[in-house]
Amino acid sequence: DREGFLTQGSTFSHKFGFGEHHLKATVTDRDGLTATQERFINVWNTAPVPEILNPRPFSRFNFPLVEDENEIELYGQAADREGDIAGNAGFIWTSNRDGYLGTGPRISVKKLSPGNHDITLKAVDSHGASAKVTVRIKMVGGPSASITRPGTGQTFTKGRPVTLEGQARDSRGNPLSGGSLQWSSDLDGALEVLEKTGADSV
């Protein structure tokens, strides 16, 4: 009923469009008598099958990206039984940490935040069917901060200055200036520096 008359014959092949089809097979004998049998079939669009070729699962990259790896290449492909992925827009890349990354079977990402990322490739065919595949990678590094004074649980008298000492390093382990550290307390908020001594007194 969707595509009208198909053909004559007892055996043939036909590629149906998507949807429910009401088929009728009608025969007419020499005396002009007819008989008909009807059948309903459904033709569904199958979702594509995406694959991420790069990066490999559990790959590790430096944060920030160093000179010899100044971008991360994301490369994938998708198989579709109907053979009609919706162009570059049919490949959508996202990160669970940083959100949308780009479209296309191959893209380059120049910046990802530090930590674990679930990189997802969503493949969409021209009829709207879609499927996803995910790999996990890790961006390692980033700046670090450590408190060397005071010690955990140490007790002080109210009104007397307390010396705070800390260290900061960049992702390559190089020390950063003391001004890179910002001190705060959950009770007092941002702390006022009373005296600079190499360490900070507040």
Describe the structure.
A hairpin with a 3-residue loop joins strand 13 and strand 14. The chain has a five-stranded mixed beta sheet, with no helix packed on it. With 202 residues, the protein is mainly beta.
Residue share in helix: under 10%
Radius of gyration: 32 Å
Principal-axes shape call: rod-shaped
The average pLDDT value, as a whole number, equals: 82
Strand order of the largest sheet: 4-10-9-6-7
Give the ordered list of helices and strands. Answer: EEEEEEEEEEEEEEEE
Low-pLDDT windows of residues: 198-202
How is the biggest beta sheet arranged? Answer: 5 strands, mixed
**What is the structural class?**
mainly beta
What's the helix and strand layout?
Elements lengths: L18 E10 L5 E10 L5 E6 L5 E4 L8 E8 L11 E5 L3 E5 L2 E4 L5 E10 L5 E12 L2 E6 L13 E7 L14 E2 L3 E2 L4 E3 L1 E3 L1
Parallel strand pairs: 4-10
Antiparallel strand pairs: 1-2, 3-5, 5-8, 6-7, 6-9, 9-10, 11-12, 12-16, 13-14, 15-16
Features:
202 residues; mainly beta; 5-stranded mixed sheet; 4-stranded antiparallel sheet; 16 strands; 48% strand
Summarize the structure.
With 202 residues, this protein is an all-beta fold. It is built from no helices and 16 strands.
